[in-house]
Amino acid sequence: MKIGLFIPCYVNTVYPEVAIASYKLLTHFGLDVDYPVDQTCCGQPMANAGFENKALPLANRFNSMFETFDYVVAPSGSCVGFVKDSYPKILEKEGCLSEVSSKVYDICEFLHDILKINKLPGRFQHKVSLHNSCHGLRELKLGSASELNIPSFSKVKDLLGLIEGVEVVEPAKIDECCGFGGMFSIEEPAVSICMGQDKIKNHINTGAEFITGPDSSCLMHMGGIIEKQNLPIKTIHVVQILSAGL
Amino acid sequence: MMSTQHSIAAEKFQEDKKQASWHNETLWFVREKRDRMSKSLPEWEELRTIAEKIKLHSVSNLDIYLEEFSKNAEANGVIVHWAKDAKEHNDIVYDILSKHKVKKLVKSKSMLTEECHLNPYLIDKGIDVIESDLGERILQLNHTAPSHIVMPAIHMTRQEVGELFEEKLHTEKGNSDPTYLTRAARASLRNDFLTADAGMTGVNFAVASTGEIVVCTNEGNADMGTSLPDLHIAVMGMEKVIPDHEALSVYTRLLARSATGQPVTTYTSHFKKPKKGGEMHVIIVDNGRSEILTNNEHIKSLNCIRCGACMNTCPVYRRSGGYSYTYFIPGPIGINLGMLKDPHKYTDNVSACSLCYSCNNVCPVKIDLADQIYEWRQNLDSLGAASSSKKMISLGMQFLFTHPTLFNTSLKFTSLINWVPRSMAFGLKEWEEGRSLPKFAKESFTSMWKKGKIKTIKKDEQ
């Protein structure tokens, strides 16, 4: 099984440790993982800001870069959601098909649904508060959203359950948005920051040492507030916990 | 530079931290009540699917159902009018009122009359218009507009209401006890009900098969306002028509649960024919709705049953208040309806969304609210309404990201900011208001990969 590792631009530059952890996890299960070095950004920031047409050349590049892989896997639900849901629409406008959209997976989704992993080595002796990121939850259905009357499930929690020692808790307003939203964070700073502060407070109130989640963008936004205000909690991506013993 | 009217108003709303936090928590409390109610029905998601389908079916066959409705209503003795826009609606109302020499009109809450600016129109013509919904009455005395479609005065504290009533209804000084204030409002309204010459209501549902209209209130004010005077005028947007009682049963189960977390609205009143010796009129209003019908991307916004659940769940609405939006309906549905009404005039609201998609999930008629907001953003540039700085940022990013060599070169520098086109810096100030900037790693993943460091990671450790 040939896996194309898709590392979103900001993960590449700000959180390479998340990319490394993703690589470790995938290769731990014996997969043939390659990283196309010319990848940059999927185009989501421009599209969410209202310039989907600016994402078109990026969608084309992305497709040609990843089309030969069996699966494309990334540690960021939001970017995966964009490639999965928006690429077909964007490319359709110029009569092209998005070959990658049907095979792109968030890494948690991939480990849970495709590899169906049931054991991982390592310990992580900490209490972590799970951040249910919006796009992971409501677009990719990594878990059941609180608004819906459907049986409760969480793929991320299932995976964390494989790690010894980790205690997973969830905050009040369990899946309310953290307020990042790409350009929303700079276009509506007052509300964005307030949402982030409220969210972090709910995470802190669980008594957890870490906020963890499947999307680095939410963690980046909350991390920025935590640092600025010197709050007593840290952020860590789920794959960093899952790869603790690798 | 990037500020929209919404973001400026939202920042102002946030200045009173205590009030802003109260607003947020109060509406969240309603969202939680809604969750409990929706989860008490095992068939909830199925109901939403059916409700969505019935509405799409109804609006797709609007000509048939409206004709059936009006034919049956007329057979029941109701006088049916058709208004193509707000002006025609107002003129028809005034025409009926003047024929009956109405001096005082009691109204039950109607967002359509807000949309048509009926009250100032009638007041200008010398008619005493009394809002009878408690929240609407408070706002009328305060000369302000609703900030929420179900809880119109939710932004006001009881102390503010107490002070307002002191001035307008001569209540005790400093008394802001809710029970006391409600009694004072009730006593005042009771007099209005008794002395009014006509009653007006909105319409929650118009049932085609029977020609009846259904009005849902929690205060019974629609019933008071229509039972005492001989004249009842009901006004409805043309999308309010549904096929039959079976369809109605789906919506009455969804409406109150979604709106306020009640199993059912306190009063669900069916009006089918005029009272003995009286007259009943129904005005069916288009006012731009037929245009939405032809708009594939946004047709689903006609599904809306005005429950307000999208506002209660919206993290942005809760933290910015109804008045931060420039359209008279706020929140996710208001962003969309405003753009459908006049995309040039109401673009500022489109920024008020973090695309969290929670509104899509709570909507009892499954309107794809967030997807529609995303689509509106794509249209801003062609409307000439796109933020120039956001456009520059997007262009800059496109340039950088389509040139991997430049992108990777830029990564060799300690800060990407040095290389990202100047436009990127527009967002820095806003970001840094409450957040530290993310620090760029000493070495990017791409660089490590190219040097072969990643592939040896595992070997090194073994």
Description of the structure:
The complex is a heterodimer of chains A (246) and B (462). Chain A has helices at residues 9-14, 16-28, 44-48, 52-66, 77-92, 107-114, 134-139, 155-160, 184-187, 189-204, 216-229, 238-242, and strands spanning 2-5, 32-34, 71-74, 104-106, 127-130, 167-169, 210-213, 234-237. The radius of gyration of chain A is 17 Å and the shape is globular. Chain A has 246 residues and is of the alpha/beta class. Chain B has 462 residues and is an alpha/beta fold. Helices cover 52% and strands 10% of the residues of chain B. Chain B has 23 helices and ten strands. The model of chain B has no long low-confidence stretch (mean pLDDT 92). The interface between A and B is large, with 78 and 81 residues.
Largest interface: A-B, 78 and 81 residues
The CA-CA distance between the termini of chain A, in Å, is 21 Å
Instruction: Report the biggest beta sheet of chain B as strand number plus sense, adding barrel if it closes.
Output: 6 strands, parallel
Overall residue-averaged pLDDT value of chain A: 95
Beta-sheet strand percentage of chain A?
A: 5-15%
Strand order of the largest sheet of chain A: 2-1-3-4
Percent range of helical residues of chain B: 40-55%
Oligomerization state: heterodimer
Strand order of the largest sheet of chain B: 1-10-7-4-2-3
Number of strands of chain A: 8
Measured by DSSP, the beta-strand proportion of chain B falls in 5-15%
Order of helices and strands of chain A: EHHEHHEHEHEHHEHHEHEH
Rounded to an integer in angstroms, the radius of gyration calculated over CA atoms of chain B is 26 Å
Structural class computed from helices and strand pairing of chain A: alpha/beta
Provide the gyration radius of chain A in Å.
Answer: 17 Å
Uncertain spans of chain B: none
Structural class of chain B: alpha/beta
Head-to-tail CA distance between termini of chain B: 54 Å
The largest sheet of chain A is: 4 strands, parallel
Per DSSP E runs of 2 or more residues, the count of β-strands of chain B stands at 10
Task: Report the uncertain regions of chain A.
Answer: none
